[in-house]
Amino acid sequence: xxxxxxxxxxxxxxxxxxxxxxxxxxxxxxxxxxxxxxxxxxxxxxxxxxxxxxxxxxxxxxxxxxxxxxxxxxxxxxxxxxxxxxxxxxxxxxxxxxxxxxxxxxxxxxxxxxxxxxxxxxxxxxxxxxxxxxxxxxxxxxxxxxxxxxxxxxxxxxxxxxxxxxxxxxxxxxxxxxxxxxxxxxxxxxxxxxxxxxxxxxxxxxxxxxxxxxxxxxxxxxxxxxxxxxxxxxxxxxxxxxxxxxxxxxxxxxxxxxxxxxxxxxxxxxxxxxxxxxxxxxxxxxxxxxxxxxxxxxxxxxxxxxxxxxxxxxxxxxxxxxxxxxxxxxxxxxxxxxxxxxxxxxxxxxxxxxxxxxxxxxxxxxxxxxxxxxxxxxxxxxxxxxxxxxxxxxxxxxxxxxxxxxxxxxxxx
Length: 413
Prior knowledge:
Elements: H1 7-13, E1 21-26, H2 31-44, E2 49-52, E3 64-66, E4 69-70, H3 73-90, H4 96-110, E5 115-119, E6 135-140, H5 148-151, H6 155-162, E7 172-175, H7 180-193, E8 197-200, H8 210-218, H9 223-243, H10 249-252, E9 266-268, E10 280-282, H11 288-301, E11 310-313, H12 321-326, E12 334-337, H13 354-362, E13 370-372, H14 377-388, E14 393-396, H15 399-412
Parallel strand pairs: 1-5, 1-6, 2-5, 6-7, 7-8, 10-14, 11-12, 11-14, 12-13
Antiparallel strand pairs: 2-3, 3-4, 9-10
Helix pairs in contact: 1-4, 2-9, 3-4, 6-7
């Protein structure tokens, strides 16, 4: 189960003070992408950088990277065991995420990273990662309604929780495309703390970083991609002003294009899992806001000449699935519903029933075929591939489904 609070994590890490500086990132959508951009740019700038994001993608340790490389499994397990033994000997009763957070932070110590890019797990104020000290810059990405049972049922309440990562004397970067209510809430927190704040806007890239403006002019990027890149660039400027004052940040900006962030608008080939040769779009959109972004991308890139789309979808139990899928699936589309398997280290996460998903999708007027496949993801993918017959195919609805698909592909090769 999820238990927010800083008491347990404080006791867990007090014996191993953090030896590195941090960039801390909160938000509902985009924080993973910003983390990836920052890690990549810092590494390109010669900084020994660690990154901690959540959830993991395929293996439990792939949420921790050192210099853009996934931490070695042997080192992960060695330090994880040390953290677990400390938890037991002190009688702390830390949660799975708190154990993972402490493990990541101690791996950063062990690997002597200079900067750790850390993504908030949930919320911000009471998230285990908020134990961070020596933060170079705090970043708040796009905020939407998610995890209302734990964070609050209004956008203002959720924004207050996420703005809880802001700290005295630590400058911050905020995605300016957030709703007015969100911006007002964050500005109130900024004013209370007297912070230097940078609000970034995708249509007004930093004039001191001409490479960013050129990148936006020459590439066909979505608004959220520009906003995330702008946020990363602004945070990078602040971080380098503190640790590498003389570096030419603008010269690093083109490196944004070579950033790899699997599971987000990722194009993959399903062979040898199925016989389909054409690329498939894989995306972990799992809330209304991220689904709208995915829907815009699919409409613009895949629905050319009026083509319909075939989907393989799953969702976490408890999600509001109607706005999630009705915003991306269109009349005449074909849909296979399925269920992801157990999530390593997160036993409380369960998949929504595939029959329930099918019923939700069938309520879309004019929908083509809808078929439920239970937990049989390979059969769902095979059926969808045959139905698509070379036409656009998208796998979406859950990062855990994305993980299972990538794992199946790895095992099939």
